[in-house]
Amino acid sequence: MYNPFTLDGKTILVTGASSGIGKAIAIESSKMGATLIITGRNEQRLKETYSLLEGSSHDLIVADLSLKEDLYLLHKELPVIDGLVNCAGLTKVAPFSFATRDSFEEVMNVNFFAPTELTRLMVKTKKIRKGTSIVFISSVSGVYCSAVASSIYSSSKGAVNGLVKGMALDLAPKGIRVNSVNPGMIETDIFKGSAITEEQLRIDVQNYPLGRYGKPEEVAYAVIYLLSDAALWTTGTNIVIDGGYLLK
Ligand SMILES: NC(=O)c1ccc[n+]([C@@H]2O[C@H](COP(=O)([O-])OP(=O)(O)OC[C@H]3O[C@@H](n4cnc5c(N)ncnc54)[C@H](OP(=O)(O)O)[C@@H]3O)[C@@H](O)[C@H]2O)c1
User: Fold this and answer.
1) Most buried residue, 7, 45, 67, 203, by most Cβ within 10 Å?
2) How far apart are CA 100 and CA 31, in angstroms?
3) Which of 50, 153, 208, 225 is catalytic?
4) Is domain 11-247 classified as CATH 3.40.640.10?
5) CA 34, 69, 177, 218 torsion: positive or negative?
6) Atom of ligand 1 nearest to the CA of 16
7) Statement: the pTM of the whole predicted model exceeds 0.70
């Protein structure tokens, strides 16, 4: 059947695949025919994602991307790939006067430095093929807007979007495309254990014209487009998936 979005024959690495958006990206990409290499910190949750992948020949590598040793080991174990989704990330909610340098470093380390270094190593060692699509999961926060007590997270995602533009230019001669997907609020565990209350979320959802937060799969579908050959002429751009949030 004709399908311009097929991922048949593509090997795709997804970071942050043990939970939320990364998990959905891995599962949906496998349904589109991709061979997945999934990575995350929590082995049990990673195995659960693995068990939900369609098809065979997938691989799973446990790594904590905040640790340089883990990142280098992960890179060493990886084969040549056709797609890279930098999805692993975390948030830290703190009013600016409490946003210490340590907090910035903790978040920047995982949201910005780790994907930057992993991608650089993959390019440098030619583990990224000509025609590879690199996708960063950024956010509307820090690129189009922010929220109270979000300066740390917003900074990290703003940096990601700047990186996407610079990388896209530098890697275009190699036929490598670099884009981001910028979601609004998606129902995942990202705020688990944070200072944000259920009541605050109930009020916040009213800012979404489509009347609800997004589902991880709704981000995954945009990522699949960027990974597929349907997006062969798309680079250096960002796709907002936000239920109309930015219209207000
Ligand atoms: N949910 C939203 O509303 C939303 C909106 C916009 C953008 N995003 C972005 O989407 C991405 C995924 O977030 P999510 O909502 O799916 O959150 P999530 O459910 O909390 O998942 C976060 C993922 O990142 C991984 N991760 C965190 N720290 C890591 C580290 N040090 N090393 C390796 N992996 C690490 C986690 O691995 P373990 O579970 O194994 O620790 C997990 O797989 C993030 O970049 C986030 O900023 C989310």
Assistant:
1) 7
2) 42
3) 153
4) no
5) positive
6) 43
7) yes
